[in-house]
């Protein structure tokens, strides 16, 4: 069995779940389309806890996403294919999506780069973020807009980028200076007396 046929078969196994368990389709659509807003809300909540640890974590997550997106665009130049619904018959397509290069999955890049960054700093609830990233990856296959290879590549790029930024960002003094300047300005507008958890 060729690699191409194998990942088509894996795609079918996941995508066909939407035909077997149609009652779960609204959940899959919600996760695939709207969990992005929950992720953004999480970043805002962490940022406005106003602790150095959380703010450095959010900065690292943002930088990891940028790096992963750049790597993803480079990967997309080396290997391309369209979405499953554009290439295969009888795909259970549950959301609207433009036909373009499906490799790698941008949603998966976004969630893994940010959620792994959260997990690296906050292990306790970090597992929940990792679980969310995995659910989003599977949902993109379930709704018919990505092959397994797309989400696997997106996850790998997100993980590698998060690990690299986690290791390198705290060593860059420029980032700490910018954060200190921001917090100084913020303190003038929204003063807070007790600050714990320095970065």
From TrEMBL:
Question: What positions does the domain Phosphatidic acid phosphatase type 2/haloperoxidase occupy?
Answer: 61-166
Q: Which Gene3D superfamilies match?
A: Phosphatidic acid phosphatase type 2/haloperoxidase (1.20.144.10)
Q: Which InterPro entries match?
A: PAP2/HPO (IPR000326), PAP2/HPO_sf (IPR036938), UPP_Pase (IPR033879)
- TM ranges are 27-49, 127-145, 151-169
CDD domains membership:
PAP2_BcrC_like (cd03385)
Entry keywords, A to Z? Membrane, Transmembrane, Transmembrane helix
Q: Which domain of life is it from?
A: Bacteria
Q: What is this protein called?
A: Undecaprenyl-diphosphatase
